């Protein structure tokens, strides 16, 4: 049942991306301004706000199905919109490199789902769920992995790497 719900939500969110795309054609700032830097605080605020969207059954924790669905949906939206949307202190977007804007094939989506499930079990701990703190920490860890100079800012190649990972340009278990 949860997996069916996750698939329905993923479909609905992808539909939202189509509406967002239509808006962006008419209005260039539909996703807020383009930014060339992302701060650790922007990432924390984005994770905090995203938690309530990902926790679709509103039980206060993220399940493996919810985690996998959001990973696939976010990758699809980043590719479709050609940008990663971040709700930090303000809503803004970061462009995704052109090589990561092609539509995901069904087999790529299945691979992303499988990798996300493996990642979830690694991150979730013994209770096999993610509370809000664990969720935020997982997002901050993704930021830290891209912040090669450890200055608390993503820019240039760091930011490109971060956006490419969200768009799931390279799927790996690392």
Instruction: Count the E strands.
Output: 4
**Unreliable residue stretches:** 15-28
Taking all Cα atoms into account, the compactness measure Rg is 15 Å
> Which H/E pattern describes the elements?
HEHHEEHHEH
What global shape is seen? globular
How much beta, percentage-wise?
5-15%
Strand order of the largest sheet: 1-4
Major sheet characteristics: 2 strands, antiparallel
- Backbone structural class: mainly alpha
* Count of all domains: 1
Features:
about 60% helix, two-stranded antiparallel ribbon, mainly alpha, 4 strands
Walk me through this protein's architecture:
- The chain is mostly helical and 174 residues long.
- It has one domain.
- The protein has helices at residues 2-26, 40-54, 64-81, 106-124, 132-146, 157-166; strands at residues 37-39, 83-87, 91-95, 153-155.
- The strands form two sheets. A two-stranded antiparallel ribbon has the order 1-4.
- Helix 3 packs across helix 4 (106-124) and helix 5 (132-146) crosses helix 6 (157-166).
- The two termini are 30 Å apart.
- The model is unreliable at 15-28 (pLDDT under 50).
What's the topology here?
Elements: H1 2-26, E1 37-39, H2 40-54, H3 64-81, E2 83-87, E3 91-95, H4 106-124, H5 132-146, E4 153-155, H6 157-166
Antiparallel strand pairs: 1-4, 2-3
Helix pairs in contact: 1-3, 2-5, 3-4, 5-6
Summarize the structure.
Helix content is 59%, strand content 9%.
């Amino acid at each position: 049942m949860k997996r069916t719900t996750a698939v329905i939500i993923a479909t609905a969110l992808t539909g939202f991306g189509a509406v967002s795309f239509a808006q962006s054609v008419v209005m260039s700032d539909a996703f807020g301004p383009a930014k060339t830097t992302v701060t650790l605080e922007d990432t924390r605020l984005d994770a905090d706000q995203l938690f309530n969207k990902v926790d679709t059954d509103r039980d206060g924790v993220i399940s493996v199905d919810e985690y996998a669905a959001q990973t696939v949906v976010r990758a699809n939206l980043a590719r479709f919109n050609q940008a990663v949307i971040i709700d930090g202190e303000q809503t803004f977007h970061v462009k995704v490199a052109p090589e990561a804007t092609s539509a995901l094939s069904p087999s790529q989506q299945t691979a992303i789902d499988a990798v996300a499930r493996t990642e979830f079990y690694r991150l979730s701990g013994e209770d096999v769920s993610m509370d809000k703190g664990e969720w935020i920490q997982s997002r901050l860890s993704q930021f830290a992995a891209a912040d090669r100079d450890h200055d608390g800012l993503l820019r240039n190649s760091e930011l490109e790497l971060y956006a490419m990972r969200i768009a799931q340009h390279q799927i790996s278990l690392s």
